[in-house]
Amino acid sequence: MKFFQRVSSVFFVLLCWLFISLSTGCGDEAGQEKKKSTDPKISPVLDEISVDSIESSIRTLANFHTRHTTSDTTSDSTGIGAARRWIYGKFQQYSQASGNRLRVSYESYLETEHARIDEPTRIVNIVGVLPGTQLESKERKYVISGHYDSRVSDVMDDTSYAPGANDDASGTAAVMELARVMSAFEFDATIIFMAVAGEEQGLLGSSHYAEEAKNRELNIAAMFTNDIIGNTLKSADGSVHDDEVRVFAQGIPPEDTLSDEHRMLLYTGGENDTPARQLGRFIHRVGEEYMPGLNVNVIYRKDRYLRGGDHSPFLDHGYPAVRFSEPHEYYERQHQDVRVENGVQYGDLPEFVDYDYVGKITKLNAAALATLANAPARPREVGIDVSKLENNTTLQWTANEEPDLKGYEIVWRPTHQPFWEHSRFVGDTTRFTIEDTSKDNYLFGVRSVDQYDNRSPAVYPLPVRN
Asked: Are 245 and 364 in contact (CB under 8 A)?
């Protein structure tokens, strides 16, 4: 009997220890980074995303024969003009369903001189703006894009069959689905959904928008582009890779564009902590929280090797921006004339798109966008106190203005690790010291936290002397 009483006591103690550990977040006092529970306001957004709707959009876009930037603009069934009017009409439908909260417009300019344009051509973006509902956050904007133009092998050929199902009807369909679903919900900050033209001719539509945004001093806190997100096959061996996605996040830009801030990042070992890299880490964390079966591979490059996408002009104008893309490009289907050669089908046809996979990437975008648009802004003027030599690390920042702010979280990691390994919530303060943790050995960041536990991307601290 005493033996069973002793065993029962031990079992009871173990149960109590387990309960306490789970309740307090075991290891949190030591600063161990822990996964937060999902926001109940965001999961319903993901639930509304429809693979059938995405597939319908991709197939419709592919049926315009070609969407080349200089193709026909007068036909109702072929060419880029018909495509953009159809996209605009769908955006208008989403606006009506949302009580006209989604503000839809064409934004265009006349391109007169470019190596890939034979004659003056109007470049037209379709833009849907979902205004934020929180006074302190509505001027903060998040842009998401896909490009709706297409091409074949000859980039100047504007009449041949160019379905562009994966490149980039897949990204355009994702943005359209996000506009459809998210316009039915409210978010603190503003979200801008864009279908841009002229990508294949040299990032024309996105470059114009980014330049105009900079001239108007728009507060674009982050930009996503979705380009080529529909293939899951690896052409070399035919294996399927539907459980991963690449997110390209730039580090330090080319030397001739270095700002003083970039130089200080290099000087202090923060070359992997640019705003774009922090955005990549943010998406990786959100993916773990909302899409646990999907591996978000943050690629430490601006884009694929020596290539570019519609996020590039935003980066060039100083906005944090990343590119979502499938894990392995299938070059027999990309920028190819549609044909059968030696028994191999070439061309970017809709039957080669993995629609369920596009749905997954659309949900990842939705989770990241919704979290960003509901979370507080990133902390401002984040600094690390270097007034004296010590083994403690003191950080400071300027207070946020959001009324639902809960406070701030300090995160840190060893210098050789890619993701944050430790975190500590420090409350609603603007200065805090992490004791016995030297800035010599760790990289630090500060992020804002709201009452729903939504967290902003982290901000790397620059040295300050008080």
From this structure: yes
Position 367, amino acid: A
Q: Is the pTM of this model over 0.85?
A: yes
Which of 91-100, 232-241, 287-296, 369-378 shows the lowest mean pLDDT across its residues?
A: 232-241
Residues 426 and 438: beta-carbon distance below 8 Å = no
Q: Is the pLDDT of residue 19 over 60?
A: no
Which band of pLDDT confidence, cut at 50, 70 and 90, is reported for residue 3?
A: very low
Confidence of residue 15 (pLDDT cuts 50, 70, 90): very low
At residue 25 the predicted structure's pLDDT band, cuts being 50, 70 and 90, is very low
- Matching residue, tokens 């002793």: 6
**431, 395 in Cβ contact below 8 A?**
yes
Instruction: List phi, psi (to 5°) of 25.
Output: 75, 75
Q: Give 9's pLDDT tier (boundaries 50, 70, 90).
A: very low
Per residue in 102-131, pLDDT (tens digit) is 999 999 999 998 999 999 999 999 999 999
Pick the closest to residue 363 from 234, 232, 229 (CA basis).
229
User: What is the distance between the terminal CA atoms of the chain, rounded to a whole angstrom?
Assistant: 67
Nearest to 386 by CA among 377, 395, 378, 373: 395
Span 169-177, mean pLDDT?
98
Residue 91 φ/ψ region, left for φ over 0, alpha for ψ in the -120 to 50 degree band, beta for the rest: alpha
pLDDT of 23: 37
Tell me what the pLDDT averaged over the chain comes to.
92
